[in-house]
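Good day; I would like, with your permission, to put a structural problem before you. I would ask you to consider whether the tokens describe a fold that such a sequence might reasonably adopt. The full record is reproduced below for your convenience:
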Amino acid sequence: MARPRRYKIELTDEQLEYLKSVIRKKDTCKTIRCRCQILIDLDESHAKMLTHEQSAKSNGVSMSTVTKTVQKYVHGGIDEVTTFKRSVNSDNARRVLDGCAEARIIELACGPVPDGHSRWTIRLLEEKSRVVLDTPVSREAIRRALKKTNFDLTKTTTGASRPKKVPNS
């Protein structure tokens, strides 16, 4: 025998129409669509009501997702369910370089090497990026930007290939 439900979901007509309109929007992400559909499935005041297990199976999510969605709705309302709250520790919040700055650094690294040097180093890129970008950028941020694009600083940028070692015969 299943234990009784802890939280009851009873949506008003306006809330039900709002959830359906959110689902119909093209720019709504899959996570928000699933949350809205879970609430519609579990609504006790309209049409058919599914169990938590049935809702999880029909939406292709886990039971904990259904439970947490219900808790969000009960404690925070419908706005809590239909919005994302990003953590301040997320990668996007901690990003030092935006796409334009990363492109400028890669453009520098692909360009001509400064006089007196045979290749770019991360320290050289750091010094040059201070001048070009007008903001100090750390070596680690430059390293991450180059690693993301699989850029190899050890290759020569002049187009001349290094001679291959021929085994002695």
